[in-house]
Inverse folding.
């Protein structure tokens, strides 16, 4: 019994440790004060108002959505294609190829950022949406690859062979069998890609111009300039968005699972 | 009947491993042929090449007289049933069965009618709206079967389709498939490593060993007239006794056993006198009696053990030089260990096999 109690306590402490920063910042989003400190004098929504009316913040939110959407599309398509390619048993060095796709996960973002800036400058893509989307895609693809590869591994290859034998040409097998079965993985991959883009600061610092300031980037710079509670409000938005996305994933997964 | 499928000197390598070796096999239209053999003997590989999932390293596969090596799977028009069912988990039973018809561009009304008939055929029309995961193994296999038959394919290929089912269901399905084969006049190639399944269902059985066909023939032929030692041992139980040929007369040979006894036996293949050979004697063809009867062949033996096995009595015997097993009908009298008995059998009940 004491063992069980200790275990529960430990779990509770771990969770507290993980969410403590959120607990610290969230109430400040609703402060009426102009500085980001406790105690909260009184409650108000002025900082959310600020977020949606002040030009810099509004543009940052829109930019985040544009870049996040672009990254999600590009990374999901590329990552899914890569995962399909990695399935081929005849591929030489399959293991090493796979590792290569996951590399951006472990390479320090600063290193990637420098490289990316040099590279994009060569193509004249710095300070452009396309450049930021490409940069974000590089770090988002590994998440898609991991997620889709997992889903593909769960597909019985003989189901696809059966489809062929029943008269389906390869493209139809993909559309009617492989893709629907891999869909849960593709969806989680897409969500992870979006979250990655939303969260990305380092690469954005290197490749984005003043017109591509994302929400994360804007928070980062405003922290140095003036510590206004707008940051807390932005953080609240972030968390709310994440929770919503998480719910969407869980729901769509259970819906897909039910269809089986 | 015209030959419908022909494997013409088919060889298949996986890397350095030769899985099918220079194999020739012809199958007639409407025929039910089983590929029977131990694990790893290349049965599945041969079936996969016929379906177009694998390419032969060399040799041709002919269907109705034309080579189909370059025809992709989806244009071969063959229904395939896998051991693992391979149903589409994201489609309902009805959608599964409709799939091959949609691929053939049929109209909605026609598809509906055909799906219904195909599901009726396997008594599953009540389950059309269910997901495969909501069905039992036997029901899933019946869906797979009706999906493979609904588009009236030219050939139906089955790779151990009943392997995952329990004994009772398996035997029921064996009879069902055999019945469908007769009713619809299907050409079926059926892979199994269960010899009784192969004997029950097939018109002909091809016995595989290490990528080659050891023997092909009717169930009766492969059981009663095994051509090789492998076939004799793989199909059913048998007594294998070494001996030397003394004389050959037509279809019969006289063989001298190490104990000195002489046996007259039917011959598979060609043997000549002086040649060391094996005799295959089926245990259920051996009769035991305490007096030297009038059987053509008679061995003096002693009972070492006798086991009652419900439908038969299994008696282990020891002759001067070799053991022998006899299976007696359940009406037979008991033979307690130590009894001296004569084991008798006719020339047609044993077989000379060249080693
Ligand atoms: N894709 C493959 N790559 C390499 N070797 C393979 C492949 N498929 C089969 N083999 C090998 O080929 C040999 C024959 O395999 P096959 O599946 O045809 O045997 P089988 O007769 O169907 O056996 P079982 O009764 O166990 O199903 C085996 O030794 C197997 O390891
Ligand atoms: Mg097999």
């Amino acid at each position: 019994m004491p063992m069980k109690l200790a275990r529960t306590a430990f779990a509770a402490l771990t969770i507290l440790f993980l969410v403590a920063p959120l607990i610290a910042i969230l109430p400040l989003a609703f402060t009426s004060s102009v500085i980001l400190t406790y105690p909260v004098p009184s409650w108000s929504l002025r900082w959310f108002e600020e977020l949606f009316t002040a030009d810099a913040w509004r543009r940052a939110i829109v930019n985040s959505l544009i870049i996040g959407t672009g990254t999600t599309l590009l990374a999901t398509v590329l990552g899914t294609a890569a995962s399909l390619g990695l399935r081929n048993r005849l591929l030489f060095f399959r293991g090493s190829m796979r590792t290569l796709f996951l590399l951006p996960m472990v390479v320090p973002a600063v290193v990637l950022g420098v490289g990316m800036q040099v590279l994009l400058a060569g193509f004249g893509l710095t300070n452009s949406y396309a450049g930021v989307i490409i940069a974000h895609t590089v770090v988002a693809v590994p998440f898609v690859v991991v997620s889709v590869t997992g889903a593909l591994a769960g597909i019985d290859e003989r189901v696809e062979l059966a489809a062929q034998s029943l008269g389906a040409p390869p493209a139809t097998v993909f559309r009617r069998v492989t893709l629907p079965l891999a869909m849960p993985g593709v969806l989680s991959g897409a969500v992870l890609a979006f979250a990655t883009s939303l969260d990305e600061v380092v690469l954005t610092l290197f490749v984005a111009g003043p017109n591509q300031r994302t929400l994360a980037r804007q928070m980062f710079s405003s922290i140095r300039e003036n510590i206004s509670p707008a940051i807390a409000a932005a953080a609240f938005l972030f968390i709310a968005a994440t929770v919503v996305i998480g719910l969407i994933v869980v729901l769509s997964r259970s819906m897909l699972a039910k269809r089986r | 009947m015209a030959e419908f499928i022909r494997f013409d000197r088919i060889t298949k390598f996986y890397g350095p491993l030769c899985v099918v070796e220079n194999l020739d096999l012809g199958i007639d239209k409407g025929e039910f042929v089983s590929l029977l053999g131990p694990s790893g003997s290349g049965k599945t590989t041969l079936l996969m090449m016929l379906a177009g999932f694998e390419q032969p390293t060399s040799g041709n596969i002919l269907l109705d007289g034309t080579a189909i090596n370059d025809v992709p799977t989806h244009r071969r028009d063959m229904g395939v049933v896998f051991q693992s069912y391979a149903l589409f988990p994201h489609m309902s039973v009805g959608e599964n069965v409709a799939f091959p018809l949609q691929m053939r561009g049929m109209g909605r009304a026609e598809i509906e009618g055909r799906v219904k008939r195909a599901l009726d055929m396997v008594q599953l029309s009540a389950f059309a709206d269910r997901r495969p995961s909501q069905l039992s193994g036997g029901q899933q296999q019946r869906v797979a079967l009706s999906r493979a038959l609904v588009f009236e394919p030219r050939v139906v290929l089955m790779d151990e389709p009943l392997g995952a089912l329990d004994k009772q269901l398996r035997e029921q399905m064996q009879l069902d498939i055999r019945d469908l084969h007769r009713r619809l006049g299907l050409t079926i190639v059926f892979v199994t490593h269960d010899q009784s399944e192969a004997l029950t269902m097939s018109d002909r059985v091809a016995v595989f060993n290490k990528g080659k066909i050891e023997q092909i023939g009717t169930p009766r032929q492969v059981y009663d007239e095994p051509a090789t030692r492998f076939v004799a041992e793989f199909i059913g139980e048998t007594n294998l006794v070494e001996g030397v040929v003394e004389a050959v007369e037509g279809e019969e040979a006289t063989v001298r056993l190490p104990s000195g006894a002489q046996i007259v036996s039917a011959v598979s293949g060609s043997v000549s006198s002086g040649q060391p050979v094996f005799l295959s004697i089926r245990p259920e063809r051996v009769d035991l009696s305490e007096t030297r009867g009038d059987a053509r062949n008679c061995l003096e033996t002693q009972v070492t053990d006798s086991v009652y096995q419900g439908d038969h009595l299994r008696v282990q015997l020891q002759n001067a030089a070799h053991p022998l097993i006899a299976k007696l009908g359940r009406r037979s009298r008991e033979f307690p260990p130590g009894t001296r008995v004569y084991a008798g059998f006719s020339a047609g009940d044993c077989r000379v096999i060249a080693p």
Summary: Chain A has one domain: 42-259. The pocket of adenosine-5'-triphosphate (ligand 1) is lined by residues B 14, 17, 19, 37, 39-45, 193 (CB under 6 Å).
